[in-house]
Structures are given as structure tokens and as C-alpha cells.
Amino acid sequence: MELIEKDNQLNQQIERFEQLMTELIHYLHAANPPNFIDSDLTEGQCIAGSILFQYGACNMNEIASRLGVSMSAATGIIDRMVKHGYAERQRDESDRRLVRVQLTEKGKQIISEFNQHKMKGLRQVLSVLSEEDRIAFLGYIQKIVDALQQQKKQKN
To answer: In terms of C-beta density within 10 A (0-12 exposed, 13-18 middle, 19 or more buried), how is residue 85 classed?
Structure first.
């Protein structure tokens, strides 16, 4: 009986988490709309661009893995970024069979603006917490990320 009750509590907490995340994302988009973003750049492309901005040139396997999508989905995202001049493909100098993707100057500029927009939203979110609560919150997120990384390693 106690196990069923704990499972029900977890289900309720999961539902509440989903509701809160949806409200948070809605609030961030409504309160801080990304009016700087070119209509040709989707949110998925912004995320891919942020990966390239942070890590530099990446191959398609790295991009797909960091996005958590299939190779074909990542290829579609990058194809559209290349088409609109935000990214470019280049052959790897050490192994010409490998293709690496990097941001163009146009891509770097728009992704820099996207990252500034993202930081502004995160500042709004975290500023409502005390320093102590921010440290605890970030600690909880780190604990979740660590556990998910461990689960991924165990699957592989």
C-alpha cells in the first residue's frame, strides 16, 4: 500500500513539474520575446548554433549527440542553417572524410544575440531566488544532470 501511495505522489509531482515548466517557458517567451531573431532561424537552430558557438567546429555526430536528436534531424537543422548563411561545412584537415560544421560571422552575430537574450531570461528567473536558494537550486539541477549522464553511460 505504501509503495502505491509513493508512486501516486511521484506521478502528481511529475505532473506539477510539467505544469510549472510549461508556465515558466511561457512566461519567459511572453515577458522577453526574441524580437531580434531573423524569421529564418528556428529555436532548434538557435540551440544548435549555441552548441557551435560554445564548442567551436563540430562534426555531425557531436551536434546530434549534444542536441539529443537523430543524425537525420541534426542534418536537417544544419542544412537550413547553411542555406541561410548561419553555418558552413568544412572538411577536416586531418581527415578529409570528416565534415565539420562551424558558424559563419553572420551566425556568430545572431547566436551571440540569442545567448544574450537567453541570459537575460535566466537572470529574471534566478533573481527571484536568494543566493542560498540559487545555490541549492543549481545543486539540484546538477544532481539530476549527473544522474542522467550516469544513466546514459550505463546504456552505452
So the answer is: middle
Q: How does strand 58-59 pair with strand 99-103? A: antiparallel
CA distance 54 to 33: 23
> Shortest CA distance to 110 belongs to which of 28, 57, 39, 25?
39
Q: Which candidate, 98, 101, 71, places its Cα nearest to that of 86?
A: 101
Reduced to 3 states, what is the DSSP secondary structure of residue 103? strand
By DSSP bridging, strand 58-59 and strand 87-91 are unpaired
Can you list the alpha helix ranges (DSSP code H) found in the chain? 2-31, 43-55, 60-67, 71-83, 105-127, 131-155
Predicted structure pTM score: 0.73
From edge to edge, which strands make up the β-sheet containing 58-59? 58-59, 99-103, 87-91
- Taking only the tens place, the pLDDT of each residue in 95-139 is 778 889 999 999 999 999 888 888 888 898 899 999 999 999 999
Instruction: With H, G, I as helix, E, B as strand and everything else as coil, classify residue 68.
Output: coil
